[in-house]
């Protein structure tokens, strides 16, 4: 039990730390402001893959709440720098990302649960 709590706490702190670097280091600075569609879609694919991997690694369903915590941590960021139009606040952009982050974490958790169940079954019944 203590190992599960410790693993979740370390995973949650790592998720929030990487999320803060993402929000304040890249999103708030306007680094992904471009008209290149391939770059925007590749960033979304990278975020999706990272969340699936996080769900696989953390193994706790409470991890689905971490993107919501990241929204509250993004409120002080304000508005990103832009040249093209009036930007959305960073926290509102994070709310829009939740649409892909929470299902991606849930997918990683479900895949890990299925894998652990498959691994525990005796060999002849596989």
Radius of gyration: 17 Å
DSSP strand count: 0
Query: Share of helix among residues?
Result: 55-70%
| Domains (count) | 1
Number of helices: 4
Low-confidence stretches are: none
Question: Biggest β-sheet: count, sense, barrel?
Answer: none
Task: Characterise this structure.
This protein is an all-alpha fold and 126 residues long. The chain has one domain (2-125). The relative contact order is 0.16. Helix content is 70%, strand content 0%.
What would the keywords be for this entry?
single chain; 126 residues; mainly alpha
How would you summarize what this structure contains?
The protein is an all-alpha fold.
Explain the layout of strands and helices:
Layout: H1 2-27, H2 37-58, H3 66-74, H4 90-120
Helix pairs in contact: 1-3, 2-4, 3-4
């Amino acid at each position: 039990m203590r190992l599960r709590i410790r693993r979740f706490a370390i995973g949650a702190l790592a998720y929030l730390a990487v999320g803060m670097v993402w929000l304040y280091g890249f999103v708030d600075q306007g680094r992904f402001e471009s008209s290149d569609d391939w770059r925007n879609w590749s960033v979304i694919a990278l975020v999706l893959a990272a969340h699936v991997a996080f769900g696989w690694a953390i193994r706790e369903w409470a991890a689905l709440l971490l993107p919501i915590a990241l929204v509250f941590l993004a409120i002080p960021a304000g508005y990103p720098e832009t040249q093209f139009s009036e930007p959305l606040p960073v926290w509102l952009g994070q709310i829009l990302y939740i649409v892909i982050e929470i299902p991606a974490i849930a997918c990683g958790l479900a895949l890990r649960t299925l894998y652990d169940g498959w691994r525990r079954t005796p060999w002849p019944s596989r």
